[in-house]
Amino acid sequence: MQESAENLADLVAYGIKCCEKKGVDYADVKFMDTKMEDISFKNESLERLDVTNKKGIGIRCLVNKSWGFASSNELTREKVTDLADLVVKIAKASALVKKFDIEFAEEPIHKATVKTPVKKDPFDVELNEKIDVLQESAIRAKGFSDRIKVANSHYVSRKDHMILYTTEGTKIDQTIIWCGGGVASTAIEGGEVQTRSLPASFRGDFQTKGYEYFESLDLLEVSEKAAKEAVQLLSAEKMPSEKSTIILGHSQLALQVHESCGHPTELDRAIGYEAAYAGTSFLTPDLLGTGFKYGNELVTMVADATVPGGLGTFFYDHEGVEAQRVVMIDKGVFVAFMSSRETAKAIGLERSSGAARAMGYDRIPIIRMTNVNLEPGDWGFDELVADTKNGYFLETNRSWSIDDIRMNFQFGTEIGWKIENGEMTDMIKNPTYEGITPEFWGNVSGICNKEHWKIFGTPNCGKGEPGQAAYVGHGIAPTRFDNVRVGILN
Fold first, then answer.
1. What are phi and psi of 344, to 5 degrees?
2. CA 96, CA 415: separation in Å to the nearest integer?
3. For residue range 195-239, what is the model confidence (pLDDT) as tens digits?
4. Where in the chain is the domain with CATH 3.30.2290.10?
5. What is the DSSP letter of 379?
6. Residue 392 and residue 219: Cα distance in Å, rounded?
7. Considering the chain, what percentage of its residues have pLDDT values greater than 90?
8. Is 394 left (phi over 0), alpha (psi -120 to 50) or beta?
9. 14, 63, 85, 320 from 21: Cα distances, Å
10. C-alpha angle 118/368/402, rounded to 5°?
């Protein structure tokens, strides 16, 4: 059959009718078409060129208050009929061994056609243009010094087109587009190896914008800065082991928020639905309403799927819940989770926070971070540094370790600078720090203002079994922490 938008919508609607005829308690039928381009260079050579297009249809239903799910890449009425039969059988079989009933929090019916606003659709830009930028970036970095042994450059773009119908009457046609990239240079001298990544590690930075965002990263210029700092790191001094004040820069703070606030506030972890992939959470439902102190009064964190450009920004989640801004930590006090309709109902909430998403048509929605943001403070960056008598400025993640309840952590960064008498001075290499989450966030003593607030994108947050990779965002401004154990891994 011709795969026009109209025909696809008709096929999804047909799936709903099949489920309704079988008397299900609830069903949603989702078509997803996921396009991705993943390109990377290593030195002068094209290392990776993946252009993929994955599409299909998935049906999820409730029968006897138990789930059934099935999917296929065959987009025909015959296959949809078979899927509807199969999901009902699976749900009935699940009901025989269920430990509890599945119920949903209420959500208004939504009908909308929505799309990420872009100036340049990344998939309308010729591959050769992207390749040329990446190749030249790597060549410039490699040519900076004979000590640069590896120069990497990366580009990734993605387009998710979803048509979601539910037996409740919701009908959503949503297209999410994002792209971005980054560079990394590795310098080697003797037995010393140092890598510098910009604008962030793990292939760079990404936003829900068009190709214009990749252009704004200016990788040709950034690649030379990364190479220069990688070479400088070879001769930099190491961080001593001590207790000190640290200021975390944008990309490192984004990962800190991701690991020590984003994952702990996922409600499926908190109630034991999710434990196989990186554990559960020290934030549990019994702590709601008790005034539990996650941090001090300077710390307010929100899950905001509405902020423009955030990689965790969308219009509706994959249960048809409208995107929201939810305060989770209010002036240091833990007040809310990110939830799905099922988990919200399980702890007596009136509504889901709208955080249920799936990586494709062949996965069920699970709770995924949206944009978990630390609200800005009132410091200018230079003022914050000047107010810091002695300490360190740390940036760009190199390594991380955190326990399965997200309480104890150790992080390493690519680069740091000493702060002495209110001035940034010598570069340091292999910086590390550790902490206990509530204690660490309780030691915040300054957050930079809106002028310095920026949202970073993480395109490969892993969770679930079978595993799912999600794209999420973190809005942050440089933040100061006192009384931190540093240099612990040197």
1. -60, -45
2. 55
3. 999 999 989 999 999 999 999 999 999 999 999 999 999 999 999
4. 5-234
5. B
6. 27
7. 95
8. beta
9. 11, 13, 10, 22
10. 120
How far is 149 from 480, CA to CA, in rounded Å?
35
Residue 5 has what pLDDT?
66
Nearest to 74 by CA among 362, 320, 431: 362
d(CA 355, CA 370): 6
Number of C-beta neighbours around residue 141 at 10 A: 32
Q: Which two tokens stand for residue 481?
A: 């922490």
What are the Cα distances from residue 414, in Å, to 200, 224, 229, 456? 10, 16, 10, 17
How far is the CA of 100 from the CAs of 62, 164, 348, 386, in angstroms? 13, 27, 15, 57
In 3D space, the residue among 369, 344, 379 whose CA is nearest the CA of residue 451 turns out to be 379
Q: Which two tokens stand for residue 20?
A: 């309704």
C-alpha Rg value of the chain to the nearest Å? 24
In angstroms, how far is the first alpha carbon of the chain from the final one? 62
Asked if 473 and 371 count as a contact pair (C-beta separation under 8 A), the reply is yes
Helix H or strand E encompassing 174: strand 171-189
Which of 371, 385, 369 is CA-nearest to residue 479?
385
- Residue with the two structure tokens 């299909």: 56
| Beta bridge mates, 26 | 62
343 φ, ψ (degrees, to nearest 5): -70, -35
- Buried b / exposed e over 398-436, threshold 16 CB at 10 Å, is bebebeebbbbbbbbbbbbbbbeeeebeebbbbbbbbbe
Q: What angle do CA 161, 166, 172 make, to 5 degrees?
A: 35
The answer to whether 168 touches 157, Cβ cutoff 8 Å, is no
Burial 241-253 (b: 16+ CB within 10 A, else e): eeebbbbbbbbbb
- Cis peptide preceding 199, ω within 30 of 0: yes
Q: Which residues of the chain have pLDDT under 70?
A: 1-5, 278, 489-490
| Residue-wise pLDDT tens digits, 73-95 | 999 999 999 999 999 999 999 99
For 5-234, the fitting CATH number among 3.30.479.20, 3.30.365.10, 3.30.2290.10, 3.40.720.10 is 3.30.2290.10
